[in-house]
Sequence to fold (421 residues):
Amino acid sequence: MTIKTWSRVIALADMNAFFASVEQVDNPDLMGKPIGITNSLTGTCIITSSYEARAFGVCTGMRVKEAKRLCPGFIQIAANPVLYAKVSTRIMDSLQDISPDIEIFSVDEAFIDLTRCKKVWDTTPEVIGMMIKQKVFSVSKVKCSVGISGDKSTAKWAAKSMKPDGLTIIPPWEAATKLRDVAVTELCGVNIGIGAFLAKHGAFTCGDVARLPISILGQRFGNPGKRIWYMCQGKDPDKVQTNIKLPKSVGHGKVMPPNTTAKDTIYMYLIHMTEKVTQRLRKNSLTAQCFYIGLKTKHGWLGRKFKIAFPSNSSKPIIELCKIVIYRYWHGEGIYQVQLTALDPREEKGQIDLFEYDDTKDHQLNKALDNINKRYGEFTLAPANLLNRSVMPNVIAPAWRPHGHRQTIQDVNLEKRESGK
Fold:
């Protein structure tokens, strides 16, 4: 049966153990060997691991010491985010040959809407799935799992159900039956909190949720709750989002040496995060007026939200806020992590408002610095405060996109990618 008979045709391509697979392709000597990716050779937490390592019980979030105990031949590899970004970009660009309607869901996942291409690809969903897998492999030598169904949520669950290198087809008219006995928390976006709420109403599986009145989820969670009700029946109404929206926030955080109490060191970390955030804002022609600046202690976070006089993407006004945090909110406690986030990024205007501060000179200086750093490497030119900054490497963020506002490899030392892949 061809896809012409389907009202909607949605595929999800999910690269298998992406970071580890890219490393094995880049270095054939690693093929077939149990490897684990950490954010540097001194990193202690595993970001992801190859399937060879997973066979020994090695998993995301595990400490390297434990991985070596479980798997004597375990090989630790330092993450190479620039390489992963390049390979991801090649893959996502190649999928445009299948359909122009693509939503890049993460660095290693993409939804492909084939609904408008049904006349072009007058074939079976199995053939379409193999085309996607072959296209990915041809440009990256990385294998992927593909799920195809009539909606996004079912397609994603289908891809996840057969790994690695799987192909799972769920016709739209079979989706409700396939999902009926599936735990609702296995669906993308249904977290433990939502699962606990549903459990109080006796709903543990998708079939259980489908039997509840939609109003129960709608009253508690609004439209997202109503969407979950439809997702559980294989009728996810969410469309493939081909346009990348403006980010809701732009932030950077960094883990510090435990219990840091040196004021100059804390200040240096904050300046580092300030420069990272403002560089990203400028790169994407964004400005912001509201910022969160925080210092994490063993008892929680110190800091607050701030609002500067006018929207900006210059580091000067934000550095002043960093000083306020240090002198007003920090009282010598040991610091473990810093965070700086632009909370309201918006498009940069082409002209200065009547009452707005004229920062033309700052803008010109920042543009020159950005051009030099783009050509010769990040922080080739940097404030003197950053001469002794942390050498922890950049890592690729979960929300990375090869095109648009999120095309930035972040300096976030929070290893939280590739869980379960």
User: Anything to note?
Assistant: The radius of gyration is 24 Å. The mean pLDDT is 86. The longest strand covers residues 300-312. DSSP finds 14 helices and 13 strands in the chain.
